[in-house]
Design goal:
The structure is a single chain. By secondary structure, this protein is α+β, with helices and mostly antiparallel strands. The protein folds into three domains: 220 residues, no CATH class; 43 residues; 67 residues, no CATH class. It is 40% helix and 18% strand. The strands form four sheets. Strands 1, 2, 7, 8 and 9 form a five-stranded antiparallel β-sheet that branches. Helix 1 crosses helix 3 and helix 4 runs antiparallel to helix 6. The longest helix is centred in the last third of the chain and has 27 residues. This is Portal protein.
Length: 415
């Protein structure tokens, strides 16, 4: 399938469109987007660790029934989301690509391709055949005479496509002062505060490099004990350098006119605290700590990373995908997209098993709740609750213990 054919069913034609009216009065045309902060290795490492964690998610189309029980739906969406949302990407690639676009642009657009078909009950339903992350260079918001919003994408090759905004999954980061787009007032990443820190950090690193080169290049001073003009000084210096180059024994012969004063290398580096302060400011900006970056973290450290950085992204994914992929009627019937965290929950395996043992033995969790704690999707009939026979109702405990006491004396006496 040619890329230009992806939009053929969604292109709005024969419509009189005008620029969408934003509340703040700004023009709704947004270019994609400044990327200068991504030259920093620290910035790239932060985004990479977030993208790697998000790529472990398992997206599922589920339905919650009136009793509150969740079941996995047999649908075209689940077929796509399981392995390959489109012919170019695996599910992991798809999620990782979205995170990079979101952090680079403060906006990410995903285009779902679908066609209508009639099911066995005679109902017209959407059959999804692909989900594509988009990377436009210019985004323009338009509206028609009924105030319906459209979005025009322009790509690197100059091609333009206009789609109904309701048909596009739009993820936003730092959604604040702009009415529609994430980022700053102009719909682009507002990296000014971060750029100042990165520029200072870069200047210090460049200073380190120059300082090391300078310290290692000047090894000593040749003091000439006679008055020489420029030509004689040059000749004397060349004679000295020749003596250095030819010295095989490490002993350099000199005459009485010159003294060589060695300089011991004393490389002055920027103190550790200053470098750590600058790097930590960058890490905090992205919500990534040093242990998370290095992979040497505890359960508590990952829990903090999950709750601060990952969980808001997961929630936004679930809401944005569900809002766009399902009609209001389908949402009312409990359809939604959930991104399960199997292999990504912050608790260690031992901590999860201990929690399951304590809560599960007392019948506090259903089978599906236990699966959810481990990051697995629900199963049919997963509302069953089991408990250990080692526990007893508190109202029966006294009678039970008295019975054991009397049995120990030869049984309970008949009245």
């Amino acid at each position: 399938m040619a890329f230009k054919d992806l939009f053929k069913n969604m292109f709005s034609s024969n419509k009189q469109l005008e620029y969408a009216k934003l509340l703040n009065g700004y023009s709704p045309i947004f270019s994609q987007f400044g990327q200068n902060v991504y030259a920093s290795d620290v910035v790239q490492m932060c985004i990479d660790v977030i993208a790697s964690e998000i790529s472990k998610l398992i997206p599922k189309h589920i339905r919650t029934n009136p009793d509150g029980m969740q079941v996995t739906v047999k649908s075209s969406l689940n077929r796509l989301l399981k392995f390959a949302p489109n012919e170019l990407m695996t599910t992991r690639d798809f999620l990782e690509k979205i995170i990079w676009l979101l952090f680079m642009n403060c906006n990410a657009f995903i285009y779902p391709i679908y066609e209508f078909r009639t099911n066995s009950r005679g109902e017209t339903i959407k059959e999804f055949i692909g989900l594509y992350p988009l990377n436009p260079t210019v985004v323009t918001f338009l509206q028609d005479s009924t105030n319906k919003i459209f979005i025009e994408f322009q790509f690197d090759n100059g091609t333009k496509f206009t789609l109904a905004y309701s048909d596009v999954i739009h993820l936003r980061k730092k959604f604040s002062v702009n009415d529609i787009m994430g980022g700053g007032i102009d719909g682009q990443p507002d990296n000014q505060a971060l750029l100042k820190v990165l520029q200072i950090n870069d200047s210090m690193l460049q200073g380190l490099e120059k300082g090391i080169k300078t310290s290692l290049s000047i090894r000593g001073i040749l003091k000439i004990n006679t008055m020489l003009d420029d030509a004689n000084q040059k000749a004397e210096r060349e004679k000295f350098e020749t003596a250095i180059a030819s010295g095989k024994t490490g002993i350099m012969p000199m005459d009485l006119k010159g003294d060589y004063i060695p300089i011991k290398p004393d490389i002055k580096l920027i103190d550790k605290d200053t470098l750590e302060f600058l790097e930590n400011k960058i890490l905090r900006y992205y919500g990534v700590s040093v242990p998370i970056l290095s992979g040497d973290f505890t359960d508590e450290q990952y829990q903090a990373f999950y709750e601060k950085t990952l969980e808001p992204i997961i929630l936004s994914f679930a809401q944005a995908f569900s809002k766009t992929l399902f009609s209001q009627r389908e949402l009312d019937f409990g359809n939604e997209i959930v991104f399960y965290q199997k292999n990504m929950m912050y608790l260690s395996t031992n901590a999860k098993l201990n929690l399951l043992k304590t809560a599960g033995e007392q019948g506090l969790l259903s089978d599906n709740q236990k699966l959810a704690l481990l990051g697995y999707p629900p199963i049919p009939d997963g509302d069953r609750r089991t408990m250990s026979l080692n526990y007893i109702d508190v109202s029966l405990a006294n009678a039970y213990q008295m019975g054991r006491k009397n049995n120990g004396k030869g049984g309970i006496e008949d009245e």
